[in-house]
Structure formats: structure tokens, C-alpha cells
Amino acid sequence: MLAFLQVVIAGLVTGSLYGLLALGIVLIYRTTGVLNFAYGAIAALCTGFCFILITGPHLNFWLALVLTLLFALVIGVILERGFARPVLHTPVFTKAIATLALALVLETIGLAIWPQLASPQHFLTPFEGKALNLHGLYFSAIDLVILVVTALLMLGLHLFLSRTRQGIAMRAMADNLAATRLMGASVGRIFLVVWALSALVAALCGVLLASQQEMVSLQFMDPVLLLAFVGAVLGGLDSLPGALIGGILIGLADNILGFVLAGHTLGPLNISDPGIRETLIFGGFVLVLLFRPQGLWGRALLRRV
Amino acid sequence: MSETATTSLLDIRGLTVRFGGLVAINALDLHISEGEIFALVGPNGAGKTTALNCISGLIKPSAGSIQFAGQELLTQPAYKRAALGIGRTFQHVQLFTSMSVLDNVLTAQHAQLRAGILTGILPFGPSKREDARARAHARETLALLGLTQYAEQPAGTLPFGVQKLVGVARALVLRPRLVLLDEPAAGVPPPEMDELAHKLRAWRDEIGTALLLIEHNMPLVQAVSDRVCVLDYGSKLAEGEPQTVLSDPAVLEAYLGRAASQQMTGQTPTQEVSHAEN
Amino acid sequence: MASKHAREQELASLDSVQPGESRASLLQRLSTWRIGLAGLVGIILVALLPTIYDQIFGFSSGFELHNSVTMIAILAIAALAQNVLTGTAAQPSLGNAAFFGVSAYILTWLVSDLNQPFWVGIIVAVLASAALGIIVGGPALRISGAHLAIATLGLVVIAGALLNLWDTTAGRQNYDLSNIPDFLTDDHALYYFVAAILVIVIFLVYHLLRARVGRAWIALRDDETAAEAFGINLTKYKVQAFVISAALTGLAGALWATWATTASSSMSSLDQTIAFLTMIIVGGLGSISGSILGAIFVGFLPILLGQLPSPLALGSVQLQVSTLTTGVYGLLLLLALIFFPSGLSSLGGIGSNLVRRVNKRGGTQ
Question: Which residues of C touch B56 (CB under 8 A)?
Fold first, then answer.
């Protein structure tokens, strides 16, 4: 029983990471219609920056983190001006492939500036080795940090989107871009805020993941990104809480399935193989969409007649 | 009302449409005869487009029956109704914008063509032959509507008025027995209204098709319809010849607004605030 | 209704130039001849390509005909398949890589393990892909848009994982294809074989897109509601698009396994899906020439970049090109998308617009 609870906790933690990424993905998608496949690369680049600050000038972790978040904001602005603007008026599919191209470019820039990140490097944090033991349940320091940060970020985003003018304008833009323009909202500024904000979330997520895995490389976000997308779509690509919960569900499924299937075999088939786990997660995902095509929290897509 | 004088083409009985708790159409009875021009009017939200969509098959009614030339429509999926002889236009035209005008009218004949994948991949044979015939027929229809010069142009690049005509060409190309026209006067400037009325009658006379119009434009309705039905909140308010129905002061005042109703009856509009016409 | 005779007269009159007929439609009739001519030239080029190619690129082993042109031809078939589904019929399905991989494995299994004739293997692989296409097409009727894209991507991951599992259980890295007919082991022969198949596929797809089925696909892409109102059975045509696309991708997958002499589970992967999608976006959605151009871009450009000397000396700067090739490819792709948002095939449109404008100036309009 204890072991199972441990697994659930691990699932919540991993799920929170997926959820955070999904959050950033849905943020950009809802306001700009872009499915940002470069999101993992952005996160990796920012995390790489943090790593360099820690290992190069040996900065204090927290200082490095703050600088990284600032770096992320700058990256967000640069990407909005240099990437999002030019592709703004291209069709939707073109924008999606453009983000893939962007991912390649970002990864290569990272490799050129920091060639040591081509292979996994140890990511040193003050959380290493620290843990909390509650009645036999083991919470590592970083796990707690991840849970707390996720909750705070979710709350912060909610307040931002519902209470501030910028936030409300962002939500309006997601529903109707033309109308928002006519109402005088500066669409350009909102795009800027969206990209900067989502870059921030990406950087945060990257640093948290690297802290948890105690490892960073330029490609370390790749396996996570796909599952984050699945979580986002599961949530409906429409709502931010949906994205977070979708990500958490995927994280839970991933960990619980891993635990349940571990070491078992079905005849000659080794079902603890991660491939089987992947198959089950994706299979479940497709099944959910079959019953609810708009995702768990998405708005039903209506055909106007 | 005697139904033996002219053949009844469309018989709607007890049509009811509910959206959640809202009753959009309430036990509607409507009968349209062969070759008749019939107008369905009423304020927005009265259920006119809903009724049209029921006939097209885009909306499934909660109760009632729609018989077309003796056949029950509601058991037929939407895509089968074109083959039965029902054509339609759309309020927002909804052309196939990446195709040329000619191809739009060619595609509109889909229901009467038969080629599939196996015949389609060949550069010769039954598929190409029937397409050639259909193309010729499409050109005929375009000529009928004065659209020949636009045949090769992409449908999406044309001015709105021309697009509307292309929409009509699509609706008429299979020479249907009933054409559903969703606000044909929308976007047509007042000087051209007479011409539109003339065209509607001409199409009916040349093809022998019945027209069911949804319209807000009362002068057009008066000029062109054989019969009018007024809907309000999903129920039939009045039905009969346009002159009678549309000059009934109660109908006019309640549903068209006092200023407009006074226009219809020839009085000068007063300075009162009229009910919104929309 | 006009009699058959009158109708034939009508058709006959349309074939000849009528007095007073505008110059524009005469040009249109010439343009069909132009297409036929272009096709003929294309076929001649395809036949002569190996000789020309070796003359130009014979100096480098990386540019071997076998390694590039044959592969690009196979990718072109896959691009055509993706374009029929996503470009013409507008189904945002990213699941084709699954058929790519599964078909390769079925071929290899039948030919290497069950010792079936190669031709049987290919036909069964293609038919199996078509059948799987129905299975993938089904959910597509309920799910749409980005949700469908990610869901079908999930199917690719599942297929890849299952194929990989098969490999692991059988104790192998990849599934090697043996018992290929002798004549196909020769580079040039394989090229002609694949090129011939490509030409046939282009021919069939070209006609299909202009036939009733193709028009139905375009109609349902442009406006589903209107399409239904004019008699188009949306379900039937969506499923047909999936089946044709799956069959063609299955063909490409079987040919790929023949070319690489092996089937690998990475054929059903995210990377492969990205390649398929990039080809049709860069080339142009719904365009046959776009599929070819896209295949050339995605297939050839990386090879071209990989042949640049590394380190490359630009004045006093030394560039480690080998690490930069993916970045340069990404940058070129980005630029292509920004400047040609409708695809490289739109160049043809610009070209014919120029021709039209020149003609207008010179003709009597």
C-alpha cells in the first residue's frame, strides 16, 4: 500500500511537470493558434543557460534561477518578434512545421554556444539528497518544490487571466482576434506577453525537471514534450486548468502503469517494457478522445449551420 | 385549402425542433405545391432557417414528418437529399472557394454522377465521359445565369453578388424540383431588387422548380411569391397570398415594426421608435 | 432535355475555337497540351536521370544514386499519400508513419521469414495498410483538428513501440529483408523500378484529383456543410481518403524496406511523421508538384548539407559545419515557410501568372 502511495506521489510530481509544459503549450495555442513544437527546445535552452551560470561563474543556484527566468523573458520577446511575427499570417499547418524548424535552429544554436550540453551533464542543485519522511512516505525536496511551484503558478496564472486587464485581453483574443483588435487592445503587446510568459513557464519547467533528474542536456526535454502535448490535448487544448490536470493524469498513468506492470510477463511478452506502457497510455488517450472528441475540458466543436 | 388543384410537393406536418429547453419550431404544418414560389418570413429567431435546415437534413427535428414528392425525408441522411431533387443556397453563400466557378457547378452535380475511385484514376472511360457531359451541363447553367465569363475564375475571388449567383447556379444545376433559398436578397442593393424578382420568376418558369425562400425583404416577397407564411417563435402566425398576409395590420405591426408596417400600407412612417426589424 | 445528338453537337462545338471566343480559353486548351508535354519531358528526365546524376555528382560517395535519388523517389510517394489525405481532403492526420513502418515489417516477415514471393509480399503489405487505413479513418470521423493530429501521432508511437517490441522479443536490432529478387539488388535497376512506380502513382493521383472523388475531397475541405447539401457522403469520402493514403504510404514503406534491405521500428516514429508533414507543407498542400518538391527538399537538402567540408573555412573563421547542418536545414526550412507560406509549388503559380500577364498585354482581350 505504501509503495502504491509512493508511486502516486511520483505520478503527481511527474504529472505536474507535464502539466506545466501543457500549460505553456495551451497558453500559446489559445491566444495565437500556434502549436508550439519548439517548446521543449526553449525549455532546454533556458535550462542550459542556468547550468552554465552554475558551473561557469559558479553562481548561487537561486541567483542563477532568477537570471535564467529573466533570460527566458528575453528569449520569449526575441522569439515573438523574430519568429512569431513573420509566421503570423501563414496557415495553421505551416505555423506548426515552422515551430519544428525553430526547434532545430534553437537546438543547433545551443550546441554551438555550449557544446558540452550535447551529452547529459550533472545538474547540481541545493535540493540534492534532501528528503522528507512522513510515516514511511518519502518526499524528496525537489518533489515538494515541484508540487508547490506548480500550485503557485496555476494560482498566479488564474489570477492574472481573470483579474488583470492584460489577462482578460488575452482570453478575449483567444476567442475572437478581430473583435479584440477593434476594442483597442494592443494585440502586439499581448502576443509579446504571451510568448514571454510561456517562455518563463518553459524555463521553470526545464529547471525543475533537470533538478529532479539531476541531469541536463540539450535534448533532455524531448521525451517529455510529446507527453505534455498529449496531456494538453486530453485537457482539451482549451482551458488552462484542463491542461494541468491532463498533464497530471498522464504523469499518474505513466507511473502507476510502470509500477503495476513491473517485472511481469504475458507469455513470451515482457510487458514491463516501456513500449507497452507507452502503448497503453496512448491507447487510453485515443479512447478518451473517441468518447469525448473535444478533450475532457474542451468546448464541444460545433458545426455552424 | 384544396390540395387537389395543384400537386403537393413538400408536406411538412407537425414539425417540432427543440434545442435543449428551447422550442425553435412548434408543430409546424406547411405545404408547398409543384412550381410554387413560397416565402417563409418572420423575425429573427422565428425558426425559418431551422426549418430550412430540417428540410436539408442539417438539423434533426424532435418530432414531425417532412414528405417530399411522397417520400419521407427525415429517414434520409443529408447527403441523399440532393439526389431526391432538392437544391439549396446558403445565407453566406459557402462556395467551394478553392475551385473555379465551373468546378463548383460541376461538383454540385455529384449526386447524379457515379464514378468512384477505380474509374476516377483512369484518364479515359466512364468517369471522364460523364464528367464531360456534366461540364457541358454546368456551362449551360452558367449561361442561363449570365455567368459564362466567370467560369474559369477561382470562386473565392469574385465579388459577393457574383458569388451569390454562383450559389444559385449550384442549386439549380440538377434542375431540382424544389430549391431552398436562404435570404436571396441579402447584400443586393435596392435598385437591383426588381431584377432579382424577375430572375426568380424566370428560373421558376424555365426550370419548373418550386422555390422556398426565407426572406426579410418584404417588397421582394410581395413581388415574387405565390404564397407567404409568417412564422413567429416557431409557430405559424399566418399563411396565404402575400397581399392578404402582408397587409394584415396585426401581422405587420407585431412583427415588422410600426414604421415598416406603415410603409407597406402606404402611410408615411411616424416618428415613433419602431420595433427592431432584426 | 436536349437529345443525345444535340448534346454531342454541343460537345463537338466546344472542342473547336468559336469565332469571337476569348483568347483566354484557347490558352486553357493549350495548357492541357502543355501538361501532357510536361509529363512527357518529365518521364524522359526520369529515365535519363541516373546518367546525368552520375556525371554531376559522381565525385562523392555520399551522393550515390542509390543513397539519394531512389530514396527521394520513395519519399515522394509517401508525400503524395500524405498530400491526398491532408492537403486535398484536409484531414489533419499524422498517422501515416504507422503504415510506413507496419507495411515494411509485413513485407519483411512474408518474404524473409515465410519465404513468400516478393510480389506477394508487396501486394499483401499494401492491402494490409489499406485495411489499417480504415481503422485509423474511423476515429477521424469523430475527432478533428489538432486533437486528431495528436491522436494519430499517438497511433504512430504505439505502432513504433509494438514493432520495436517485436524486434526485442525476436532478439534483433532491425528486421533485415532477405530474399529480395536479384534484379532489385542492382542500384540502377532499383532506381528504375521505384521511378516507374512513382510515375504511375503520379499519373493515378493526378487523374483521381480531377475526377468526381477528388472534387468531393476538395469540396469537403472547403465547406463540409455545402458538400453534404450537394450529395457528398462525408463519411464515405473521408474513409476513402484514409484508405488511399494508407495504401500509398504502405507502398512507400515496402519500397523503403527494399531499398534499405531492412525494416526498422524508427520508420513508425515522430521523426518520420515530421518528415512526411514537412514535405507537404514545404511543397504545397494539395499539389502534386508540391509533393515532389517537398520530397526533394526534405530528402536531398540534408544530404547536400552533409557533404559540405567540415570544418569550413570562411576567411579567418572556421565553422564546424557538421554540428550545424540540422540548424542550417531548420533555418532554410523556416525561410521557405515564411517566404512561401503556400509551399514551393506556388512558384509555379507565380510563373503562370507572369505568363498570363504577358499574354494579356500581347493579346486581344
Answer: 229
With a CB cutoff of 8 Å and minimum separation 6, the contacts of A202 are: A21, A24, A39, A42, A43, A46, A72
CA torsion sign for B81, B87, B92, B96 is positive
**A166 to chain C, closest Cα gap in Å:** 26
Residue position matching grid coordinates 504510404: C249
Angle, CA of C34, C39 and C43, to the nearest 5° = 150
Rounded Cα–Cα distance for residues B229 and B54 (Å): 17
Is B15:B51 a contact under the CB 8 Å cutoff? yes
Domain edges within chain B: 1-85+176-247, 95-175
Sign of CA dihedral A45, A48, A50, A53: negative
Grid cell digits, residue C116:
513468400
Task: Please enumerate residues of B whose Cβ is less than 8 A from a Cβ of A.
Answer: 49, 53, 58-59
Structural domain span for residue C81? 61-268
Rounded (to 5) percent helix, strand, coil in chain B: 40, 25, 35
Q: For residue C161, what are the CA distances in angstroms to A266, A278, C276?
A: 16, 7, 19
Contact C110, C257 (CB under 8 A): no
User: Which of C142, C157, C324 shows the shortest C-beta gap to A290?
Assistant: C142
Chain A residues touching residue B53 (CB < 8 angstroms): 305
Cis peptide bond N-terminal to C311, omega within 30: yes
Grid cell in block for residue C344: 514551393
**Subunits adjacent to chain C (3 or more Cβ pairs under 8 Å):** A, B
Q: Is residue C27 part of a domain?
A: no
Q: Would residue C328 count as lying in a domain?
A: no
Residue C247 lies in a domain: yes
Q: Are B116 and B110 in contact (CB under 8 A)?
A: no
As for how many domains chain C has, the answer is: 1
Residue C348 CA neighbour count, 13 Å, CB half: 14
Instruction: State the nearest Cα–Cα gap between A305 and chain B, in angstroms.
Output: 7
Please indicate if any CB of chain C lies within 8 Å of the CB of B160.
Answer: no
Q: For the ranges A117-126, B102-111, C72-81, which has the lowest average pLDDT?
A: A117-126
Fold for domain B1-85+176-247?
Rossmann fold (3.40.50)
Give the H or E element holding residue C74.
helix C71-82
3-state helix, strand, coil in chain C (%, to 5): 80, 5, 20
pLDDT recorded at residue C105 = 96
- pLDDT tens digit string along C276-332? 999 999 999 989 999 999 999 999 888 888 777 766 666 666 666 667 788 889 999
A108 and chain C in contact, CB less than 8 A: yes
Say whether residue C26 is in contact with chain B using an 8 A CB cutoff: no
Per residue in A118-143, pLDDT tens?
889 888 888 887 888 887 788 888 89
Sequence-distant (≥ 6) Cβ neighbours of residue A58 within 8 angstroms:
none
Contacts of B90 in chain C (CB under 8 A): 225-226, 229
Nearest-10 Cα torsion for C234, C240, C245, C251? 180
A237, three cell numbers: 487544448
In a domain, C35, yes or no: no
Check if A272 contacts C (Cβ < 8 Å): no
Helix axes A165-175, A2-32, angle to 10 degrees: 80
pTM tops 0.95:
no
Flag if C168 and A93 touch (Cβ within 8 Å): no
Cα A251 to chain centroid distance, Å, stands at 12
CA atoms of A221 and B154, how far apart (whole Å): 45
Contacts of B58 in chain A (CB under 8 A): 305
**CB spacing of C139 vs A290 below 8 angstroms:** yes
DSSP single-letter state for residue B47: S
- A267 at the C interface (CB within 8 A)? no
